[in-house]
């Protein structure tokens, strides 16, 4: 029947929005049980807090009045007691009280995962053609948000201390000289255990980032979106203070966090701490999206925070992820320590879920390259680094990186998976080898 009809008239936005590459990788991994997947950033399955959530739900529903209230619609901004608890929690992570950050519960908006807030805040600030500055490489689902919004993306290099502030300042200066500063709306950073590199922005750079962005906020205030999704999964020394903590008048930084990584993504709950003048516009958008996230999940999370179940779970996760990260790092050292040592390197994340592996430039890690196919034959899959670079017109996308997720895989499988990956890398190198005209050389990026 549809064959006789013309196509639907899709909106420009629908046409700008691309299918997420991760969908393909999910299928690859789900379709074959023999494949070890380092590709998909799901959380550790074994430690998901099923027993804790059962107790929390029983506690909630055993009080009829509270139970019924939790099954009713909630408010657009979220449960007020939960927002109070979040304001205290977010400030406490910086060793502060909410007042010291210039925030209160009214600055907190609870969302359906932090992804929803990343989307809404961007939608509130960015028109098609506006400029958003992001990391290179960066969180590819946010790159998808930017594509859907129609933003022009300018990317800023990372090094082992996170986004390079000299490069950020240079990008802003270029834009100013071109008379385009009015188009810059957002600087986005995933500043703790970054997705995809695992790198944490150094303490010094946090204050510098705020200073630079403030200095260029002449045409209007440029918003820093601090996506701290992995902050609570930092496992080494205490992580640096948030960028938000330097924004003492709560004027410039949106701090986005989530209950997904430190508790349970199935509850689809995240939140942001917003400057006062963003609250209204964000809530207006959220009201037309869904007029409030799951009220039941919010009641559960409030109980989890009050009973200490949340804090206990985060501790357990930190132990688990530390062991997994260590297993991946030692497997990489054992399996790839002697492979093209001047060009092969990997990050040593202070937590989170990801290690970023760099191979010699002549090795193609792309989805359609020989290594990806060889890795699949060996029974392992990774996220090709090419997916993690935004569409920055001024740059060529490197094709010699990959993101390895240690979140979902148990330690023996991590060791086995890295052994398979190393075999695939060596076989591919034997077959393809370095082209004579382009000898392996130090990667300038890191
Ligand atoms: C960097 C980053 N930000 C935000 C999110 C969104 O997570 P959620 O919507 O589950 O809070 C993710 C999910 O993987 C992420 O990696």
Task: Kindly describe this structure.
- The protein has 446 residues and is an alpha/beta fold.
- The chain is built from 14 helices and 14 strands.
- It has helices spanning 12-16, 21-31, 50-62, 64-71, 80-92, 113-125, 140-149, 165-177, 203-215, 276-289, 295-307, 309-336, 370-378, 411-432; strands at 36-37, 108-111, 131-136, 152-159, 162-163, 184-189, 223-227, 253-258, 270-273, 345-346, 354-358, 380-381, 383-384, 401-405.
- The strands form three sheets. It has an eight-stranded mixed sheet with strand order 2-9-8-7-6-3-4-5, with helices on both faces. A four-stranded antiparallel sheet has the order 10-11-14-13, with helices on one face. Strands 1-12 form a two-stranded parallel sheet.
- Helix 6 crosses helix 10, helix 12 (309-336) runs parallel beside helix 14 and helix 13 (370-378) crosses helix 14.
- The longest helix is centred in the C-terminal third of the chain and has 28 residues, at 309-336.
- Residues 438-446 have low confidence and may be disordered.
- It binds pyridoxal-5'-phosphate.
- Pyridoxal-5'-phosphate (PLP) is lined by residues 41, 113-115, 139, 190, 195, 227, 229, 258, 260, 265, 270.
